């Protein structure tokens, strides 16, 4: 048995065993203390929070137990935009070590900042997440998350270094080269978006490189919604265990929550650094464990950018039942999508990841797809562009037949009526990072 597998067998808790197994009562005590400090810090230093707290009739001292969090106002992405670029920071810019930003499809980007203490805690939490996902010190971590303003690349990078791994800082793109280096350097862990991992798997297959026979063992995939079906497909094609990792730049970046490779069933949310709530996105009322709704996160240890009750728009549910791995931190179930990604097609609510679940593994199709939205009169219409698998018959008749089959499956499994456009191999665009799942042509045509 080599050193890596000995380590994996010996200890599931690779990085932070005491914190990851903290009894829930102690965790709640720590959360309360840290929440109090965060409220005071935000209120003392950020004019936005002074105004928002005043409007809600609360002060930091209004918190007498963790449950009082519901008295405090929510923070929205628009608050970051309205205070662009540095207005939400609780410390002078001179005390910040790094900035990240999200591109933002409309208007101003969202800017986030970190002190050196914030970066240190982020590296620790990302190291904890990678350990939870199955990585061990000494592993080669091939990091295909994009480097730059996106938090994925640098977040995974410093976490892997902190865990004691050898990092290959690939970033996204240049997929043929990624395949060669994954193989040549004997990577044990692949960090990438699930859609890019699929692209890598496909390019490896067509180059005749069998990654299943390489030392690759774990995939740490996140930054976009993906389905259980895609997990199984990636695991089979790459010969790995694939785990889900979640995060968002407003809160920190990757490593807010991560699945354990032991159970692969929900993502442990690191409660010593974040407070998680679920609310009804319409009424804003709190929801109980197990009920689906919008995830709301409060940071407990951020210095530069404390976030109070940040509305993520991500739809999920929380599970506080004990996990097989022994970690005590609650689990955030797979994020099916953002509430603003939800499509309403002829009265039926549908997330792109539900369409993905139907397409992955469908006989004769590749798991690549794109959804095109158009307007037919007053109604929204959805066309799903799917792609034939290598070697599948691609004459007109076979494609029409395949289209009918897929349409029928989507109707019976999701309940939505849509058109199917069966494309030939290579015609659906490949992802290099976060996949663009929906092409919205409604405005262009109306
Ligand atoms: O995507 C951070 C990240 C990088 C997470 C690498 C995981 C791995 P943002 O660019 O700010 O940050 O986008 C955050 O992406 O609110 C979700 O809507 C979505 N998202 C992130 N992880 C997942 C996931 C990074 N595992 C937004 N499942 C979030 C579903 C995810 N959606």
Note down, in words, how this protein is organized.
The chain has 446 residues and is an alpha/beta fold. Helix content is 33%, strand content 24%. It is built from 13 helices and 21 strands. The strands form 5 sheets. Strands 4-3-5-6-7-8-9-14-13 form a 9-stranded mixed sheet. β6, α10 and β7 form a beta-alpha-beta unit. The protein is globular and about 70 Å long. The termini are far apart. The site of 5'-O-[hydroxy(phenylacetyl)phosphoryl]adenosine has 21 residues, from α7, β7, β8 and β12.
Query: Helical amount among residues, as a percent range?
Result: 25-40%
DSSP E strands, number: 21
N- to C-terminal distance: 64 Å
Ions, cofactors and other bound molecules: 5'-O-[hydroxy(phenylacetyl)phosphoryl]adenosine
CATH superfamily of the largest domain: ANL, N-terminal domain
Global outline: globular
Provide the CATH architecture of the largest domain.
Answer: 3-Layer(aba) Sandwich
Largest sheet: 9 strands, mixed
Query: What number of domains?
Result: 2
> Can you tell me the CATH class of the largest domain?
Alpha Beta
Gyration radius (Cα, Å) is 22 Å
CATH topology of the largest domain: Rossmann fold
With strands numbered from the N-terminus, the spatial order across the biggest sheet is 4-3-5-6-7-8-9-14-13
In terms of structural class, how would the helical and strand content be classed? alpha/beta
Please state the average pLDDT score: 95
């Amino acid at each position: 048995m080599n050193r890596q597998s000995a380590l994996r067998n010996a200890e599931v808790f690779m990085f932070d065993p005491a914190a990851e197994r903290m009894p829930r009562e102690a965790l709640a005590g720590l959360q309360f203390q840290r929440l109090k400090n965060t409220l005071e810090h935000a209120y003392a230093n950020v004019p936005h929070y002074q105004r928002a707290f005043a409007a809600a009739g609360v002060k930091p001292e209004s918190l007498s137990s963790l449950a009082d969090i519901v008295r405090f106002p929510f923070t929205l992405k628009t608050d970051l935009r309205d205070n662009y670029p540095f207005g939400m920071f609780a410390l002078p810019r001179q005390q910040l070590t790094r900035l990240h930003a999200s591109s933002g499809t409309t208007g101003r980007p969202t800017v986030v900042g970190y002190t050196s203490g914030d970066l240190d805690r982020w590296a620790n939490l990302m190291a904890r997440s990678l350990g939870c996902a199955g990585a061990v010190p000494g592993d080669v971590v091939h990091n295909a998350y994009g480097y730059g303003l996106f938090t994925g690349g640098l977040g995974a990078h410093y976490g892997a270094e902190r865990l004691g791994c050898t990092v290959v800082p690939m970033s996204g793109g240049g997929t043929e080269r990624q395949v060669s280096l994954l193989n040549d350097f004997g990577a044990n862990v692949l960090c990438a978006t699930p859609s890019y991992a699929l692209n890598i798997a496909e390019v490896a297959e067509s180059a005749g490189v069998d990654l299943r026979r390489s030392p690759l063992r774990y995939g740490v995939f996140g930054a976009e919604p993906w389905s259980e079906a895609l997990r199984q497909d990636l695991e089979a094609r790459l010969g790995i265990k694939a785990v889900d990792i979640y995060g968002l730049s407003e809160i920190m970046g990757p490593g807010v929550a991560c699945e354990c490779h032991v159970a692969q069933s929900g993502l442990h949310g690191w409660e010593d650094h974040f407070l998680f709530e679920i609310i009804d996105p319409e009424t804003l009322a709190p929801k109980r464990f197990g009920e689906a709704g919008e995830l709301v996160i409060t940071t407990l240890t951020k210095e530069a950018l404390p976030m109070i009750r940040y509305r993520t728009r991500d739809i999920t549910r929380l599970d506080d039942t004990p996990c097989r791995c022994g970690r005590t931190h609650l689990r955030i179930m797979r994020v099916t999508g953002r509430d603003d990604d939800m499509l309403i097609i002829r009265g039926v609510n549908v997330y792109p990841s539900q369409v993905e679940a139907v397409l992955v593994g469908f006989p004769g199709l590749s798991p690549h797809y794109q959804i095109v939205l158009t307007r037919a009169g007053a109604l929204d219409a959805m066309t799903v562009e799917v792609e034939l698998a290598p070697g599948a018959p691609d004459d007109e008749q076979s494609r029409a037949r395949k289209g009918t089959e897929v349409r029928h499956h989507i109707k019976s499994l999701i309940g939505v009526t849509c058109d199917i456009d069966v494309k030939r191999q290579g015609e659906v665009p490949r992802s290099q990072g976060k996949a663009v799942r929906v092409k919205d042509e409604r405005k262009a045509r109306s």
